[in-house]
C-alpha cells in the first residue's frame, strides 16, 4: 500500500461563502508498484485527488497516509519565479529537497542537460516561451528519485525532440517507480497505466484494468 | 533498462542525458526539512525582491535610508528640536522609526504572502507559515543593516551616538519580531481566507505610525493621553528600545506587557493558522 485515504472529505468555499463538496467520506487505497490512471469529467475532482495524494492539500476531514516518497506534481511550473533564472529556480527546488554543495551542483547540471535549455538556463524565466518553461519544469521533476510520481496532464510537453525524451524518461521511470496519471488522453492512459480510477459524483471507482475505467467513463459520456 | 546504483541513477536510453542523476538526500528529520525550507526560501525571496534588478541590493538599503532622511527633514520643518536627550534629533528619530518600519514592513509583507506563494506549496517541504517567518525576517535583517549603516555614518560624522544597553535594545527588537510574526500570521490567515478582511487590517494599521512613539517618548506625553496610548503594545516596544539606547532616558514602559502581547498574538496566530490550514494551500 503506497497511499491510503481514510474517510476523506474536501470542500472549497465559493465566493458566496457556501461550500462546494468535492469528496465526502472517501476511502481509497492504492497498491504500490502499480501505475494508476485517473479519468473523469472536468471539475469532477481529479486534480483535487492528485493534490490530496501528494499531501499538498490537507483534507477537511479524514486522513491521507503516504508510504515511501511521493513526488510533487510532475512538470509543475507554477512554483517558479519569473524574475529568477532557470538555474536559480531549480536551485531552490533542490535546496528544499535537502541538496547542498557538490550534490546540488551535480543535480543542477543534470537538470540543465535534461531540459536542453542551454544558455537560457541562466536567463530569467520571464524570457522563456511556454514550451521552454514546461521543459524546465519537467526536467526539474526528473532530477529527483521518488517511489511514486504524480502527474496532472503532462503528456504533451515541448517540441518533438523533447517529447521523445520525455517518452524515454517515462519508460525508464516506470521501470523503477510507479506513476499516477490524470489525463484526458485515453491513448496515454492506456499506454502508461495498469489500473484505473474513475472519478464522478464525489466518488472514486477503482478498476483492476485501465481499459475498464475508460470504458466506464466513456459509457457515462454518451 | 535502468541502472540504479548507490551513487544515484542514470537512465540508459539514447534519448536521455548520459549524466548520472545524483542520489536523493538521505532521510531528513522534520526539523532539518523545516530549517532547510526556511533557508531556501530566504535566499530565494531576497534574490527575488532585490537580486533581479540592477543595483537591487544597493537600492534595498538605500531606499529606507533615504526615506528616513526625508521624513526627518519634514519633521524638523515642524519644529522637531535639534538635540534631545543628549543626541541629535536624527538619531533620536532613527531609533524610533526603524523598529516601526520593521514592524510595518514585516506586517505588510506577511499580509497576502500565502496567496502569492501558492504555487510553491505544491512542494510539501514548504508550509505556509514558513513564508510569514521568512518575509518578517527579511524586513528585520534588512532594516538592522540600515540601522548599523546609519549609526556608523553618524559616528563618523562626530554626531553624538548613544548606545547605553545594546542587549536590551536587541531584546526589544526580538519581542517586536515575535509581535510582528504573530500579527502578520493572524492577518494573512484571515486575508487568505476572505480577502475583504484586508481592509480592516489596513485600517487598524494606519494610525499606528502616529501613536507608536516614533516621534515622541512616553515621558513627554500628557497624563490624559498617556492613559489611552499606553494600551498600544508597539509604543512599548519602541519606547523600551529607545530607553535601552539613550542613557538620559528611562522608559516607563513594561517588558511584561509587551511580552504578553507578543507571545499572545503569536499563539493566537498559530492557533488560527492550524485551524484554517486546510483552507490556506488551496
Structure summary:
The complex is a heterodimer of chains A (222) and B (282). Chain A is an alpha/beta fold and 222 residues long. Chain A has helices spanning 46-54, 86-96, 101-115, 130-142, 160-176, 186-192, 210-221; strands spanning 3-13, 19-30, 36-40, 61-66, 148-152, 178-182, 195-200, 203-207.
The Rg value of chain B, from CA coordinates, equals 23 Å
Number of strand segments of chain B: 4
Strand order of the largest sheet of chain B: 1-2
Distance between the termini of chain B: 38 Å
The SS-based structural class of chain A is alpha/beta
Helix and strand run of chain A: EEEHEHHHEHEHEEH
Low-confidence stretches of chain A: none
Record keyword descriptors for this entry.
A: 222 residues, alpha/beta, five-stranded mixed beta sheet, 7 helices, B: mainly alpha, two-stranded antiparallel ribbon, disordered N terminus
Q: Can you describe this structure?
A:
The complex is a heterodimer of chains A (222) and B (282). Chain A is built from seven helices and eight strands, in the order E-E-E-H-E-H-H-H-E-H-E-H-E-E-H. Chain A is α/β, with parallel strands linked by helices and 222 residues long. Chain A has a five-stranded mixed beta sheet with strand order 5-6-3-7-8, with helices on both faces. Chain A has a three-stranded antiparallel beta sheet with strand order 2-1-4. In chain A, a hairpin with a 2-residue loop joins strand 7 and strand 8 (203-207). Chain B is mainly α and 282 residues long. In chain B, 66% of the residues lie in helices and 4% in strands. Chain B has helices at residues 30-51, 56-77, 89-110, 113-116, 128-156, 166-193, 197-205, 208-211, 223-229, 233-245, 255-280; strands at 2-5, 8-11, 83-84, 87-88. Chain B has a two-stranded antiparallel ribbon. In chain B, a hairpin with a 2-residue loop joins strand 1 (2-5) and strand 2. In chain B, helix 2 (56-77) crosses helix 5 (128-156). Mean pLDDT of chain B is 87; it is low at 1-8. The chains are: A alpha/beta (222), B mainly alpha (282). The interface between A and B is large, with 50 and 47 residues.
